Amino acid sequence: KQWYQRRVRGSFNSLSFCLRLFNIPVKMSKFLVLILLVTIFVLVLGSSECPLKKKKLSKRIKKYRKKCLSKGFQSSVGCTSSDKKIGKKLQRKCQKLETILKKCDFSCPVDGGWSDYSDWTDCSAECGGGTQTRSRTCSNPAPAFGGADCEGEAEESQECNVD
Hints:
It is a single chain. It contains four helices and four strands, in the order ββααααββ. It is an alpha+beta fold. The strands form two sheets. It has a two-stranded antiparallel ribbon. It has a two-stranded antiparallel ribbon with strand order 3-4. Strand 1 and strand 2 form a beta hairpin. Helix 3 packs antiparallel against helix 4. It is elongated. The N and C termini lie far apart (about 110 Å). About 5% of the residues are buried. The N terminus is likely disordered.
C-alpha cells in the first residue's frame, strides 16, 4: 500500500496524510492538532452571533421556559423560575441553552415596580387649607426587555392645614 492509503483502526488516517502531504514532521502533529481544536472551539463556541434562525430561536425559548425555568433553574438573564431544585445534569443543559439564548440577545421581560414614596412636600398654605404631594418612580425595578410599566399614579396629594 502507498503511504497515503494506510488505514488506522479501519479508517483512513487523514491526519497522517495531511502531515506527509505538507511535509510536516510527525512530532509536531500533536501540537498542530491542539491548535486546530482550539481554533475550532473559538470559532464555533466563542462566536458572539446568534447561531439560531428565528423559528428555532422561538422553539428554544419555549424549551428553556418549559424544561428549565418551570423546573427551578436559576436564570442569569432576569427570568423568574419555580422554587424547585434541579439536578446537576439538567443544570448543565439549562446553562448551555441559556448561553445560546444570550448570544441571541434573549432576556426575560422585567415588569416595573414602584419605589417607595418620597416624603410629603411642605404644605402650600400656612392656614386656610393647602395641599401637599409626594411621588414615587417606576424604578424598583425599572421595566426592561418589554416588561410592563408600573400601574397606578406616580404622584399623590392630600389636603393640609385645613383648620
